UniProtKB/TrEMBL annotation, chains A, B:
Positions that bind substrate: 136, 163, 254
Protein name: 4-hydroxy-2-oxovalerate aldolase
Entry keyword annotation includes Metal-binding: yes
Gene Ontology MF: a single term: 2-isopropylmalate synthase activity
Every Pyruvate carboxyltransferase domain range: 1-224
UniProt KW Lyase keyword: yes
EC numbers on record: 4.1.3.39
Single Gene Ontology BP annotation: L-leucine biosynthetic process
Reactions listed under catalytic activity: (S)-4-hydroxy-2-oxohexanoate = propanal + pyruvate; (S)-4-hydroxy-2-oxopentanoate = acetaldehyde + pyruvate
Species of origin: Geobacillus genomosp. 3
Keywords assigned by UniProt, alphabetized: Aromatic hydrocarbons catabolism, Lyase, Manganese, Metal-binding
Family to which the UniProt record says this protein belongs: Belongs to the 4-hydroxy-2-oxovalerate aldolase family.
Binding site for Mn(2+): 163, 165
């Protein structure tokens, strides 16, 4: 935290993967109480803004108020890309609390650029100070990113951000594409630490942007050192594109589908990747895990024929 | 080998990193005698062509003849990008032996696109059936790749290839840029296994191209399985962008300079990355390791002032 702040990282998100209140038996327990982490981060930071993530339906007003009391200056409010409307009161509350707000449109590949822009516009109308295109499954190609940034630019007055995952090895490539299309805010993590194959690797992005003459305000050597000597030793395993992560990136489905597809594949004698490809085609969304058995059964019958 | 062949990989290079005859105390010993490996590969392969790498000055006519006798169908002849002229007789011999030939222009970022195209044209005139742009230091940005592919396309009649390293996290992004600019041959390795931060990851590239509707002839599931179950368990450590690899990608110098810069940095109290940045500016090439002490001394004096 201190190393990131000293290197000049402008915003540091302190959050469970499912945001405020996300630590639970269902979503995975945090090792340390989140409010303690936020309080410590806010005390330590001299320059960086401290942000928290909030998923409507998981985090509540109570936790947002607590997080504000513990020192956050920004809240990132995340919804499925087609459900921006569930975030209206959360933006309202955040604004009442005097927080800077980010709208976070997850699984953004599932909508057309124009549809996504409409959802982004909703978030702007609720009070989002920035709207992020979030490639949750790491499945976008550079052109997908460019098309979406351009579509959002056409309708928004607020800045546009981009959040990549590296499942197709394109976290850096897509981040560059986003910047070239007009995005001004890019999420990143040292050593790429994050779900799937990880996120855009901060120190690499800083190096690339420096080479391009784009000033980030982040000291390259300091962020490289923080990644090498602080973050790397803390990681259980490095971020790589393995078979599971590539399957998610290739099919563009929710990573939570993977386990279910493996179970169903075993039951029906079908390659789980075939199941996920078909689920991707049918644009299954979270909550439609029951489709997995249907698809597995269909594929199994088709094979039998 | 067999798994790559069965998955449909069209060409498999069997080589020491320094090519035929590269196994030595100076360059690192191979664990198995190279000719045995080539012979075994040629026997096993049913569809893939077997290729070897040859660096004029390291590998000789004798080894090329031996490799041909052991079953190679293709030789990749590699020179520093500004020294294509040293490869003339090697192309001649390869053609006499009835081999398909690839020209391999290493450290290709060090020449302007137009200068590089002239070197590529030389290789074509010697008999290269394909010419590769080789980003040995993993330092190119997508636009650098595009500019070079376009420059080569303007002057060559033979196809153009691209060989990436992932030091800036751009192996996949740059490979896509190369293809979009007109390159038809892309080097890759499963799990990215290769020097520095590794090469373009085969199974990821196949997935991405499949998503783009570009047919590679490689079976995605088979190559994913080969990477996961055969190559990954053989690797000592995964390919990541660590501090050293990023330093090479950022500065664009020879990876062999890194060790010398660290020694010199310690001696003169200078950050080795500062030394390498300056060497990159001065466009030092292999053999100019003595510049390192000069640069370190200059930087140290400048600091003292």
């Amino acid at each position: 935290m201190q190393a990131l702040d000293e290197a000049g990282v402008p915003v540091i998100e302190v959050s469970h993967g499912d945001g405020l209140g996300g630590s639970s038996l269902q979503y995975g327990m945090s090792l340390v109480e989140e409010m303690e982490l936020i309080e410590e981060a806010a005390k330590t930071s001299r320059r960086a803004k401290i942000a928290a993530l909030l998923l409507p339906g998981i985090g509540t007003k109570k936790e947002l108020q607590q997080a504000k009391d513990c020192g956050i200056q920004m809240v990132r409010i995340a919804t499925q890309c087609s459900e921006a409307d569930v975030s209206e009161q959360h933006f309202g509350l955040a604004k009442e609390l005097g927080l800077e707000t980010v709208g976070f449109l997850m699984m953004a590949h599932m909508l057309s650029p124009e549809e996504l822009a409409q959802q982004a516009k909703l978030m702007e109308s609720y009070g989002a100070d920035i709207v992020y295109i979030v490639d949750s499954a790491g499945t976008m190609l550079p052109q997908d990113v460019i098309d979406r940034v351009i579509a959002l630019k056409k309708v928004l007055n607020v800045p546009i951000g981009f959040h990549a995952h590296n499942n197709l090895g394109l976290a850096i490539g897509n981040s560059l594409a986003a910047i070239q299309a007009g995005a001004t805010n890019i999420d990143a993590s040292t050593r790429g630490l994050g779900a799937g194959s990880g996120n855009t690797q901060t120190e690499v992005l800083v190096a690339v942007l420096s080479r391009m003459g784009i000033e980030t305000g982040i000291d390259l050597f300091q962020i490289m050192d923080a990644a090498e000597y602080i973050v790397d030793p803390l990681m259980d395993s490095p971020m790589i594109v393995n078979r599971d992560a590539l399957t998610i990136g290739f099919t563009g489905v929710y990573s939570t589908f993977l386990w279910h597809a493996k179970q169903a594949g075993e039951k029906f004698g079908v390659d789980p990747r075939e199941i996920l490809i078909e689920l991707g085609r049918r644009k299954a969304v979270a909550g439609q895990e029951d489709w997995i058995l249907d698809v597995a059964s269909d594929l199994s019958s088709a094979k039998g024929r």
